[in-house]
């Protein structure tokens, strides 16, 4: 095996430059199609700078106020937040109901987190938001993305909406179950049953046991149970047989560990063909190995290890987070099961970009989503120079503590 590259380190100054450029200048053209998700981008930028110890506390007061005002412009009068000020009409347009560009659950999650970096939650209409959350729950316990003017819940049934719901609920009402300020709670038991029902035969989690397991859904389900204080904690479960934890933790751990893929760069290809590796390399990227070449059975550790989200899929920077964070929540002692040195070398030499940020895959350009989750994965593994991450909330532990301190000041 060749000697490991010498530049296996996190280039913190370049990453700070990248994120400040995202904050202060126009984003690349490809982001114009994500206007409805601008709140998501705002959170990634603010939280990445926080992880790099260059967060909003270092901004001029006027800049913090400007960001805060921009976020609050997206607050919906019937509860929740829209994804961009361009998707929030003047109040008069909502007098007959919320059918015109209703608030959506992911935008609300990212808005509350983003607000926590530039102040408290005192301007959030907590009462309206909590009442809106209840209307998003279906009879099977799942949550949708939004509610139409006719009261119909729209959006998928997958674990992402359960995850953002659990976090929004925690930020607005804490760990208390039952009515708060005269507002009924969601059906927590029904939600927990829905989360558990997503575990598949191989141990991973999907939107139901009959679908293919996915690392992102697995993370969302585990994090939801963690935030709800129901992750393998029988002392807090009202009904241990139906409500506490996952069905088969050992199978989940085994499935998560199998997402590690040994990556072999194609050293003979020229720069013009970097995005088109040969067939053997494509097989390796997708986790397809011959019987004698399965990394788990090898006596030597691969130089580079990436992660995929499903069997026979390519490695992707974001799955380094979904997998390591899931293991960390199940039990912090499980994270040493990850081949951390080889994972770091993969991220630093294969997807870390020279201008800062991380790409989705080797040879690609950096983007906000993968750049943040690359940092988050390293923060889970306690990378020097980064703040430690709270795996469930996907912000630094320091920021989680700050949210706990300011959430009691919510309005409404």
TrEMBL record:
InterPro entries: GGTase_I_beta (IPR041960), PGGT1B-like (IPR045089), Prenyltrans (IPR001330), Terpenoid_cyclase/PrenylTrfase (IPR008930). Keywords: Magnesium, Metal-binding, Prenyltransferase, Repeat, Transferase, Zinc. Pfam families: Prenyltrans. Gene3D superfamilies: 1.50.10.20. The keyword Metal-binding applies. Residues 10-395 form the Prenyltransferase alpha-alpha toroid domain. GO terms for molecular function: CAAX-protein geranylgeranyltransferase activity; metal ion binding. It comes from the Eukaryota. Its EC number is 2.5.1.59. GO terms for cellular component: CAAX-protein geranylgeranyltransferase complex. Its cofactor is Mg(2+); Zn(2+). Belongs to the protein prenyltransferase subunit beta family. This is Geranylgeranyl transferase type-1 subunit beta. It comes from Glarea lozoyensis (strain ATCC 20868 / MF5171).
């Amino acid at each position: 095996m060749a000697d490991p590259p010498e530049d296996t380190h996190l280039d913190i100054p370049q990453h700070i430059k990248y994120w400040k450029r995202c904050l202060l200048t126009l984003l690349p053209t490809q982001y114009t199609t994500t206007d409805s998700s601008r709140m998501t981008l705002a959170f990634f930028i603010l939280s990445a700078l926080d992880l790099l110890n260059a967060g909003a506390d270092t901004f001029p007061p006027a800049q913090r106020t400007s960001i805060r005002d921009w976020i609050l412009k997206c607050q919906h009068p019937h509860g929740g937040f829209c994804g961009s000020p361009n998707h929030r009409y003047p109040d008069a347009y909502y007098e007959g109901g919320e059918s015109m560009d209703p608030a959506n659950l992911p935008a609300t999650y990212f808005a509350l987190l983003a607000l926590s970096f530039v102040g408290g939650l005192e301007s959030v209409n907590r009462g309206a938001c909590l009442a809106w959350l209840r209307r998003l729950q279906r009879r099977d316990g799942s949550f949708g993305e939004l509610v139409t003017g006719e009261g119909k819940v729209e959006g998928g049934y997958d674990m992402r909406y359960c995850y953002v719901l659990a976090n929004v609920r925690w930020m607005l009402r804490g760990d208390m179950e039952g009515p708060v300020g005269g507002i009924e709670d969601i059906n927590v038991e029904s939600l927990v049953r829905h989360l558990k029902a997503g575990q598949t035969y191989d141990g991973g989690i999907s939107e139901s046991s009959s679908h293919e397991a996915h690392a992102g859904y697995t993370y969302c389900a585990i994090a939801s149970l963690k935030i709800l204080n129901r992750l393998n904690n029988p002392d807090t479960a009202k009904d241990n047989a139906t409500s506490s934890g996952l069905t088969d933790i050992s199978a989940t751990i085994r499935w998560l560990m199998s997402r590690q893929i040994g990556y072999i760069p194609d050293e003979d290809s020229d720069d013009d063909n970097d995005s088109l590796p040969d067939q053997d390399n494509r097989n390796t990227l997708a986790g397809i190995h011959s019987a004698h070449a399965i990394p788990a059975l090898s006596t030597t550790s691969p130089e580079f290890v990436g992660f995929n989200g499903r069997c026979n899929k390519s490695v992707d920077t974001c799955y380094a987070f979904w997998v390591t964070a899931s293991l960390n929540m199940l039990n912090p002692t499980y994270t040493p099961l990850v081949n951390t040195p080889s994972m770091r070398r993969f991220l630093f030499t294969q997807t870390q970009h020279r201008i800062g940020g991380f790409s989705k895959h080797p040879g690609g350009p950096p983007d906000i989503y993968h750049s943040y989750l690359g940092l988050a994965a390293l923060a889970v593994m306690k990378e020097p120079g980064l703040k430690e991450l709270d795996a469930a909330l996907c912000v630094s532990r320091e920021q989680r503590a700050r949210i706990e301190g300011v959430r009691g000041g919510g309005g409404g």
